[in-house]
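From the methods appendix. Each design record in this collection lists the tokenized structure first, followed by the designed amino acid sequence. Records were kept in a plain field format so they could be parsed without special tools. The example shown here is representative of the layout used throughout.

RECORD:
FOLD TOKENS (391 positions):
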């Protein structure tokens, strides 16, 4: 077994590093790890468009869909380097490439693939996910948003919540109830809503998170009309399309690289602290570095499954739990190690590491909730991974 990347991947890595230096500046501090306002958003749009020109938004997709036909291992190189440098995103790579794109490749019609995939790989379309509702999160199949067929259109009424980046997106993929009388999993359809900002009856309202950022939203549908041609898969069979998408959502690799970056930054800071602080913190930091290495290899396992044509399922749940819990430990450790100065937020000029520590301390809290809570992931490992009966 050879655990190293090959010469081709390492050559690509150098090319990606040079590109990131050009695009993001040769900065030693943390990358552009969080969008904080209009200016950051526009930078992320411009960055994605530069990637689009090179075919680098979805390198592992086939060339016919705007990718490069690259291997999964080359894709991992991109993800690692982007993660390490905190490369900005708009929802194009996360929701577009990471979720709806691969789902369309499996379940979409030829017309749907031709319509949507090129606008993902060019960076033009920004997607958001309309799954959760006020009463339906973990028990997603209980969702109530209603879609009633009217000729060539569905008429939608209901509400979605926690819609990340909904205020930035122009496109939404969503799950709606098309048969209220069927058993709950069998009455759901998967729809794409185009141009959400200009869709009559669709309202997006901000929700401010505990880091005081506008990250997610509530979305209301009042007689929103969606063409039947925008349905992916059969009517009332959308649950299975929606679950394929969740497998892709939980398979992302890149978090480990951004965690490695902050651990390296913390070790530089620790070397400058007094002997007592060094003694107190060095073994804890070493433990986190061990965790980071374990996370990296768990991520490579996902890459291996994908490279052999599989879609990771309970294996992705293992990664999701491990990386999200490790992230919380890293930032908790970071703010405590750095002390009072570690509490300066990004807007404060004296902020250490650009204010990344307190901001990420707060924003990693929900990482054990989104993409399906860690309790739900543990249930998946118990049932699908270990074959245990449902509790
Ligand atoms: C930062 C963030 C971003 C998000 N972005 C999006 C988005 O873009 N689009 C979207 O659609 N949704 C999004 N979500 C919503 C997310 O998917 C839900 O919050 C999540 O699925 C949990 O649902 P809930 O909040 O309704 O909690 P609940 O389902 O009410 O869960 C409450 C608690 O009960 C536990 N629990 C529930 N059922 C079980 C069970 N069977 N076994 C064991 N424990 C259980 C849960 O683990 C949790 O601790 C986001 C959430 C967050 C925090």
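DESIGN:
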């Amino acid at each position: 077994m050879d655990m190293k990347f090959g010469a081709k991947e390492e050559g690509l890595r150098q090319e990606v590093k040079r590109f990131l230096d050009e695009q993001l500046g040769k900065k030693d501090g943390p990358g552009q790890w969080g969008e904080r306002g209009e200016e950051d958003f526009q930078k992320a749009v411009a960055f994605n468009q530069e990637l689009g020109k090179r075919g680098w938004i979805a390198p592992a997709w086939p060339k016919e869909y705007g990718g490069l036909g690259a291997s999964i291992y080359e894709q991992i190189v991109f993800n690692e380097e982007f993660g390490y440098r905190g490369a900005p995103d708009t929802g194009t790579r996360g929701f577009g490439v990471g979720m709806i794109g691969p789902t369309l490749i499996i379940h979409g019609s030829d017309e749907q693939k031709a319509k949507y995939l090129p606008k993902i790989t060019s960076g033009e379309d920004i997607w958001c996910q309309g799954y959760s509702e006020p009463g339906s999160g973990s028990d997603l199949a209980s969702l109530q948003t209603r879609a009633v067929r009217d000729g060539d259109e569905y008429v939608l009424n209901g509400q979605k919540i926690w819609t990340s980046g909904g205020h930035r997106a122009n496109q939404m993929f969503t799950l709606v109830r098309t048969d209220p009388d069927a058993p709950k999993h069998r009455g759901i359809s998967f729809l794409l809503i185009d141009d959400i900002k200009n869709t009559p009856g669709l309202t997006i309202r901000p929700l401010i998170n505990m880091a005081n950022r506008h990250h997610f939203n509530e979305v209301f549908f009042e007689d929103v009309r969606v063409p039947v041609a925008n349905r992916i898969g059969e009517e009332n069979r959308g649950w299975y399309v929606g679950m394929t998408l969740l497998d892709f959502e939980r398979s992302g690799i890149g978090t480990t690289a951004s965690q490695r970056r902050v651990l390296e930054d913390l070790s530089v800071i620790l070397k400058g602290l007094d002997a007592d602080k060094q003694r107190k913190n060095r073994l804890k930091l070493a433990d986190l570095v061990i965790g980071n290495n374990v996370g990296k290899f768990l991520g490579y396992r996902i890459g291996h499954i994908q490279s052999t044509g599989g879609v990771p399922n309970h294996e992705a749940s293992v990664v999701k739990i491990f990386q999200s819990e490790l992230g919380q430990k890293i930032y908790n450790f970071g703010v405590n190690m750095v002390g009072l100065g570690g509490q300066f937020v990004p807007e404060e000029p004296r902020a250490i590491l650009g204010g990344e520590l307190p901001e990420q301390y707060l924003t990693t809290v929900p990482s054990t909730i989104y993409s399906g809570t860690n309790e739900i992931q543990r249930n998946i490992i118990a049932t699908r991974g270990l074959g245990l009966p449902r509790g």
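APPENDIX NOTE: The pocket of flavin-adenine dinucleotide is lined by residues 129-132, 137-138, 162-164, 216, 366, 369-370, 372-373, 375-376, 379 (CB under 6 Å).
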